[in-house]
């Protein structure tokens, strides 16, 4: 395909992409780069519509060289669903939800796992290890098994139980940590160091290819809107790979000449109980400082110290976007209100984006008539406790 090299966005150093790699020597994540001129010469936007409805339709812009190594469960091409009733209520008639809950493992994490595992397999990795807040571990365990790779997954005790069950079903080596994802990350780092190279660290942004799977959300949004960009894209942000990936995709599309210069404003949504990016953005800081006593019911965005903080903040500022923190009570209220009006049960992280959209429209940051895409990053069915059924009458 058209992958040329890996590049460090912090120091600019380039690395070959022909062997497994983690971070740059300066500590920054590495980004995959492509020969976009060659891509533009080999494919046109119209051709994607003739291909299967999965993320591999964008194969020229993905890092797997040999298709024999592609590991897939049909991930990608999730729907854009208009939300006219709820949108009218909050003053955004052009409100659209991209529903990642329909991915094979019930969350957008399937995208990163599909591409990350496929590339790891191609590069000769035999076992991966990673910390997770739940859904990523479930996805990587599932795809690793399908690819014939081993997987060690470290997960906080408070993570959604269904994610634990998914890992066990896939026969991953699951370890539970009494703490946060940062504590699980320290345990994984020790395991990888002790393995002498036998275990590859596939943690968030610690390898370059999870991001490449996530960026396909950006491609899909644009293609599904008729190769037009929305005005605003709102994303629940923990580790931030999805937001960074969408930003990368939009810039690749612009360089290819497939979209015009105007790009969407990106919004990072966090919880008031864990908002390191919001705090850094408001202060004008280039890096985020760790958040103490992190907690929120939107467990997937409980990341007190994201490795990709620089890249997240760059994406927000480059796009003219913003960062918003919302509280758990508002998240639950909007989750239930949206389900009652639109018939779709969102995950808490997706509902947080609705809260942000409502607040940003009320404050005027989202203007009248703008087209707004919010990401529902997982299936609401994975979080049954968000809907109270204790008062349902027995007949």
Automatic annotation (TrEMBL):
Domain (Tryptophan synthase beta chain-like PALP): residue spans on this chain = 72-378
PROSITE patterns noted in UniProt: DEHYDRATASE_SER_THR
What keywords would UniProt list here?
A: Lyase, Pyridoxal phosphate
Q: What are the names of the required cofactors?
A: pyridoxal 5'-phosphate
Q: Which GO terms describe its biological process?
A: isoleucine biosynthetic process; L-serine catabolic process; L-threonine catabolic process
Top-level division of the source organism's lineage: Bacteria
Q: What is this protein called?
A: Threonine synthase
Q: What is the lineage of its organism?
A: Bacteria, Bacillati, Actinomycetota, Actinomycetes, Micromonosporales
């Amino acid at each position: 395909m058209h992958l040329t090299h890996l590049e460090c966005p912090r120091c600019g150093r380039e690395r070959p992409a022909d062997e497994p790699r983690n971070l740059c020597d300066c500590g920054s994540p590495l980004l995959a780069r492509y020969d976009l001129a060659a891509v533009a010469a080999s494919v046109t936007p119209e051709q994607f519509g003739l291909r299967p409805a999965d993320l591999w339709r964008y194969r020229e812009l993905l890092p797997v060289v040999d298709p024999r190594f592609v590991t897939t469960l049909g991930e990608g091409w999730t729907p854009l669903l208009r939300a006219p009733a709820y949108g009218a209520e909050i003053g955004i008639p052009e409100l659209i939800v991209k529903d990642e809950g329909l991915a094979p493992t019930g969350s957008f994490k399937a995208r990163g796992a599909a591409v990350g595992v496929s590339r790891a397999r191609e590069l000769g990795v035999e076992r991966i290890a990673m910390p997770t807040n739940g859904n990523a571990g479930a996805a990587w365990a599932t795809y690793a098994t399908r690819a014939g790779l081993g997987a060690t997954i470290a997960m906080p005790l408070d993570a959604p139980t269904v994610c634990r069950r998914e890992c066990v079903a896939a026969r991953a080596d699951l370890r539970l940590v009494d703490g946060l994802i940062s504590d699980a990350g320290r345990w994984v780092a020790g395991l990888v160091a002790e393995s002498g190279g036998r275990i590859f660290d596939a943690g968030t942004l610690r390898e370059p290819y999870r991001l490449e799977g996530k960026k396909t959300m950006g491609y899909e949004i644009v293609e599904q809107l008729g190769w037009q960009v929305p005005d605003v894209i709102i994303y629940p942000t923990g580790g931030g790979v999805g937001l960074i990936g969408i930003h990368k995709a939009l810039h690749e599309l612009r360089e290819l000449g497939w979209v015009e210069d105007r790009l969407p404003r990106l919004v990072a949504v966090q919880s008031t109980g864990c908002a390191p990016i919001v705090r850094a953005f408001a202060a004008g800081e280039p890096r985020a400082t760790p958040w103490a006593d992190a907690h929120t019911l939107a467990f997937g965005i409980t990341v007190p110290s994201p490795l990709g903080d620089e890249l997240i903040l760059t994406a927000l500022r480059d796009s003219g976007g913003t960062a918003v923190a919302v509280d758990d009570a508002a998240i639950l209220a909007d989750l239930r209100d949206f389900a009652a009006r639109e018939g779709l049960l969102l995950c808490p992280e997706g509902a947080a984006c609705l809260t942000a959209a409502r607040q940003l429209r009320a404050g005027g940051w989202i203007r009248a008539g703008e087209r707004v895409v919010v990401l529902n990053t997982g299936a609401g069915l994975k979080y049954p406790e968000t809907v109270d059924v204790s008062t349902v009458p027995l007949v």
